[in-house]
């Protein structure tokens, strides 16, 4: 028994030794692997440090080149403007031929001046307008006030500009859908709650403030947003601020339901306009007839002539709704029973005037588009009539020739 126990003990010791040898070998292999990975990582870090330093040097060079190129661009632009003014002022400029000291006639002067204006100013001015937004642009006053500095918001990469424009469009669509759902719930299911009303109005204030900032950035990068639609959003911010701080008095209770119905209708029309204009802008960009940074708007533009008969009724109803809002608010402000506070009577008159400005500006815009469409149709009819007369004349001439040959 003692010998058997001793044999088992020796076998156990041998097994432990083998295990310890194996474990030591495994640990050594893992340590070697870690050391190798660390050495490779150290080499990569050193290479990255060198590349990063090169990147910083090139970035500094590019920034210097931007500033120098911007200064040169401004000088050339000023020279073109100065030449334009000189042509306008010095109408009696005498241009001498190369080897003949003979004064030109007045008509010849005008021809030379028009040539200078066309080839030395107009064409180059168009070129400078095209490349203007490939250079850093100084921020406008509104952005400087918001950002608190001269921070440049120029996006020089075309793909990044398009991404920013797409994010602007998605932002408008998503917030409009949220506002539409909230307006529907607040006007039908949810009972009157001033706190929820304040949340909705604060969302409107934030939405319009964000729109004005994003649109200013888009304009700084070459987007051709009409002045009226930018002004529309600035005025909308003021209107929503007034509604946000409106006390929960009898006047507010009278206008509350109407305001939610108006918000619901306008949100629906904006969603409809978004999907229509998205397809239209895609086709125009594919044909090269529209700028890549052209955005969708809440109203009508000349490029939307084909959809005028379908979209115009919805827009006109919305504009009439704005006029009705102005009328109701003015009536509320004139009745002391509805609003006894004289200060808020005056503020409600301002809010009424804002809705009337919306009605007036939007109506003028759509009227100009309709007039442009009518003129275009008249021109098309006249062109077709002219072509018809030309074809008719050609047929008559062919007939006369054939009859003469016979």
Largest sheet: none
Number of helices: 9
The low-confidence parts are: 93-102
Shape: extended
Strand share of the residues?
under 5%
Q: Which class of secondary structure composition applies to the elements?
A: mainly alpha
Question: What is the CA-atom radius of gyration, in angstroms?
Answer: 37 Å
Mean pLDDT: 78
Q: What level of helicity do the residues show?
A: over 70%
The ordered string of helix (H) and strand (E) elements is HHHHHHHHH
Write up what this structure looks like:
- The protein is mainly α.
- 80% of the residues lie in helices and 0% in strands.
- It contains 9 helices and no strands.
- The protein has helices spanning 2-89, 106-131, 141-147, 158-188, 194-220, 227-244, 250-287, 308-334, 342-405.
- α4 runs antiparallel to α5, α5 packs antiparallel against α6 and α7 packs antiparallel against α8.
- The protein is extended and about 115 Å long.
- Mean pLDDT is 78; it is low at 93-102.
């Amino acid at each position: 028994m003692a010998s058997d126990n001793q044999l088992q003990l020796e076998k156990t010791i041998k097994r432990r030794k083998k295990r310890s040898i194996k474990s030591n070998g495994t640990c050594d292999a893992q340590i070697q692997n870690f050391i190798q990975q660390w050495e490779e990582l150290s080499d990569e870090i050193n290479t990255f440090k060198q590349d990063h330093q090169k990147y910083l040097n090139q970035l500094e060079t590019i920034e210097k080149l931007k500033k120098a190129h911007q200064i040169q661009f401004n000088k050339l632009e000023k020279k073109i403007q100065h030449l334009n003014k000189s042509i306008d002022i010095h109408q009696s400029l005498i241009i001498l031929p190369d080897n003949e000291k003979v004064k030109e006639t007045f008509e010849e002067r005008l021809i030379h001046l028009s040539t200078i204006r066309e080839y030395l100013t107009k064409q180059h001015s168009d070129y400078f307008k095209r490349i203007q937004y490939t250079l850093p642009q100084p921020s406008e006053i509104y952005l400087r006030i918001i950002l608190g500095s001269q921070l440049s918001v120029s996006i020089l990469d075309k793909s990044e500009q398009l991404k920013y424009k797409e994010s602007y469009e998605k932002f408008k669509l998503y917030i409009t859908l949220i506002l539409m759902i909230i307006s529907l719930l607040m006007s039908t299911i949810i009972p009157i709650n001033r706190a929820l009303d304040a949340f909705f109005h604060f969302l409107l204030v934030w939405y319009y403030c964000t729109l004005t900032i994003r649109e200013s950035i888009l304009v700084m990068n070459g987007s051709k947003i009409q002045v009226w639609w930018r002004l529309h959003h600035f005025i909308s911010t003021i209107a929503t601020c007034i509604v946000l701080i409106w006390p929960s008095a009898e006047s507010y209770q009278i206008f509350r339901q109407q305001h939610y119905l108006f918000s619901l209708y306008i949100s629906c029309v904006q969603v409809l306009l978004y999907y229509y204009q998205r397809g239209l802008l895609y086709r125009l960009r594919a044909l090269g007839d529209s700028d890549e940074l052209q955005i969708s708007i809440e109203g009508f533009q000349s490029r939307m002539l084909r959809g005028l008969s379908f979209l115009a009724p919805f827009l006109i109803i919305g504009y009439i709704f704005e006029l009705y809002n102005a009328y109701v608010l003015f009536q509320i402000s004139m009745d002391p029973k509805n609003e006894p506070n004289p200060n808020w009577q005056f503020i409600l008159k301002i809010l009424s005037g804002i809705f009337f400005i919306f009605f007036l500006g939007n109506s003028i815009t759509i009227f100009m588009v309709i007039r442009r469409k009518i003129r275009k149709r008249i021109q098309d009819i006249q062109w077709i009539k002219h072509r018809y007369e030309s074809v008719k004349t050609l047929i008559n001439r062919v007939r006369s020739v054939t009859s003469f040959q016979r």
